[in-house]
Amino acid sequence: MMKSFISGNIAIAEGAITAGMRFYAGYPITPASEIMEYLAEKLPRIGGITMQFEDEIASINAVIGASWAGVKSMTATSGPGLSLMLEALGLAVITETPAVIVDVMRAGPSTGVPTKTSQSDVMQVRHGTHGDYVIPVFAPWSAQEAYDLTIKAFNVAESLRTPVILLSDAVIAHLWESVLIADPGEVEIVSRRKPSVPPDAYLPYKPDDDLVPPMATFGEGYSVLVESLIHDERGFYKQDKATYRSLVSRIINKVLSKIDSIFEVETYYSDDYRYLLVSFGSTARSALAAVRILRKSGIKAGLLRLKTLWPLKHEILKKYCEEAEKVFVVENNAGKILYDIERVTEGDKVVPLPLLDLEIPEPKDIVDGVRKWL
Amino acid sequence: MPSGNSHPLDQYLRTARLPHIWCPGCGIGIALGGVIRAIDKRIKEGVLKKENVVFVTGIGCSARTSFYVNFDAAHTLHGRAIAFATGAKLAKPELEVIVIGGDGDIAGIGGNHLLHAAKRNMDLIVLMITNFVYAMTGGQVAPTTPLGLYTTTTPHGNPEPPLNVVKVVSSLNANYVARASVTHPLLVEQYMYKALGMRGFRFIEILSTCPEVFGRHIGVRDPLTLYNSLRSKVIIKQSPSIDESDLDWEKGLVIGEYLIRDNPSFLDRIKGGSK
C-alpha cells in the first residue's frame, strides 16, 4: 500500500492499472483528458497501450475490440463524447464485452460549459443507448473512491461480462487528495471466466448458472462470433421472439441478480434523523457539510449517499426514506435521482433541491433550501 | 453439415450457417472465395495460423461475411469495423485482423476511421467490396454511385461524382493499395495473398456485381449480363498510376496494384516508444 497525493482523474487511471487494464483508447475532452495523458505516459512502461483515436466513436469501438482480444480495456470522456459513444455502448451490452467507460461530467446540453461541473448525465449513462439493458453505474465522491470504484467497475465488468460506467465529475476530476494505492495482491482483482470446454463444444453465448457465459477471446482457437444482432447461444442471428426474449432477459437479469454486490450506499447520522438528504458524487460532499451545519443548530438531519446509481435497490432506498419526515434530493442538475426517490416514497415528503450550480454547491445553499421546509 | 463430398475450403467456413443470404448473382461470394483461398495458401505455407485470423465487419451485405467464416469473427456496428479491428490488433499483435465491408460501410459512415487507419499505417487488411449502392437497405445512393444515377434517394439523379477511395487511401501512408474485381477472381486471391505477406495498412477495393439492387437501377437485372458488363469496363494494368484510378465508366475501371511499399507500420513505430 502506498499513499499518493493525486487528483481524481489520476486516481481513476491508477485504479484501472491496479485492476489490470492494459488498453486505453480515448479522445481529448475537458475535464477528462488528464486520464489519457497520465496513461499515455505510464501504460507503455508496464506493457500496455494508450491510444488517442480520431474520435470517441473509434475509441469505444477499439476498447471493445481490445477486450475481445483478451485485454482489460477502458475509455474516458465527458458528456459530448459520451453522446458519441452511446451506439457502441449498446454493442458492448449485446456482445457482453467487459469494458469500463468513464464519464467525467461537465455542464450541458451540447458544448455547455466544458470546464465546469454538473451531474446531469445520470439518465444518459443509464438509458442512453437504444434497446433494453441494465448497465452498472458507480459515482465516486473523493479521489480515494475514484480509485476504489474504478477497481470495482472492472471487477463487475469482468465477472458479469458487461460494460460498466464510472460517473465522475469535473470537481472530482481536479480534486487533489491523498489516495492509498494498493500493491498487487492487496485488493481482489477479478478476471473474466474462460471456457472449460474444448473449442468444438464451446457456445460463446451459453451462460453458466449465474447467467454469464464463459468468454473465449480472439486467437485462442475457439472461432468466437462477436454478434451485434440478436443471437442464439452459438452467436447466430435469430429474429424470433423466443431468442430475443431469452437474450435480452438474460442480459438484464445477469446484472440484476447480482444487485447485492453492485449496489452500495453510505449514510451519515443515520441513527436519529428527521430530515434525510439524498445525494451522490461531489455534491454529496456539500450535502454532508450542510447536514453538519443543520445538526449544529439542532436540526436532526442525515445523509444518504448513493455510490451506485444503477441499478438501484429500491428496498434500501425505501427503508431510509421511510424513517424521515422529509427527504431532500440534493443534486447538481435539474432533477434526476429525484425520480428514483419519489418512486420509493409515499405522500409528499420528497423535496427536490436541484442546484444547477456549475461549481461544487455551497453548503449554505443546501441549508437554505432545507430550512425553507422546516 | 453438407452431404456428399465436402469442399476443401469448408474447414474455413461455418457450413452449418449455409446457405448464405446473398442474392443470386451477388459478387460477394466470389470475393470471399478469393480471400479464403489466399488465406489457405498462407496457412499451408506456415506464414499464418488459422487461430490468429480475425474477421471484423460492420453492417451491410459484405459485412455478413463474418457470419460464414470459421475464424474468430466480429459483426459489429455500421462503419466501426476498422476501429474495433484496430483495438483488437493493438491488444494482441499476433492476430491477423481482416476487415471486410461495403463502400458505404468503409468509406461512407466509416470514412474517418479509414483515413486515420491509413494515416497511421495501422497493421490491418481492409477489403472494401464496392457494389456502387446501399444494397441491404434497398438501393440508396452510395459513396461510389456513378454521377447522375437514379437511386431510391436520388430520384432526380445522383448529383455527386463517385468517391475514388483508392486515390484517397493512396494519399495517406498505406503500405499496399490495390483494386480488384470479382470479374477477375484470381486477382482477388493474388492481391490478398500479397497483402497477407506484408505489414502495415493494406487496402484492397474489390469491384462487385449487385444485380438485385444496383442492376435494377441501371436496368440490368440479369446477373450474367451485369457480370459481363462490369467485365467489359474493367481494365487490368500491371502498375497503374493513381491518376488512372478514378471510377470512370466511360474510360474504364482500372484494376491493379496501385501502391506497394514496406514502410514501418504503426506497431513497428510504437515498439520504439514503449521503453
Give a description of the structure:
The complex is a heterodimer of chains A (374) and B (275). Chain A has helices at 8-19, 33-42, 56-68, 79-94, 122-127, 143-160, 170-173, 241-256, 259-262, 281-296, 314-322, 337-343, 363-371, and strands at residues 2-7, 23-26, 49-52, 73-77, 99-105, 137-138, 163-169, 176-181, 225-227, 265-268, 275-280, 301-306, 308-310, 326-331, 350-354. Chain A is of the alpha/beta class and 374 residues long. Chain A folds into two domains: 1-262, Thiamin diphosphate (ThDP)-binding fold, Pyr/PP domains (Rossmann fold, 3-Layer(aba) Sandwich), CATH 3.40.50.970; 266-371, Rossmann fold. In chain A, helix 4 links the parallel strand 4 (73-77) and strand 5. The radius of gyration of chain A is 21 Å and the shape is globular. The termini of chain A are far apart. By secondary structure, chain B is α/β, with parallel strands linked by helices. Chain B has helices at residues 28-45, 65-68, 81-91, 103-109, 111-119, 165-170, 185-196, 214-218, 223-233, 266-271; strands at 53-57, 72-75, 96-102, 124-130, 176-181, 201-207, 234-236, 253-260. An eight-stranded mixed beta sheet of chain B has the order 2-1-3-4-6-5-8-7, sandwiched between helices. Chain B contains ten helices and eight strands. The chains are: A alpha/beta (374), B alpha/beta (275).
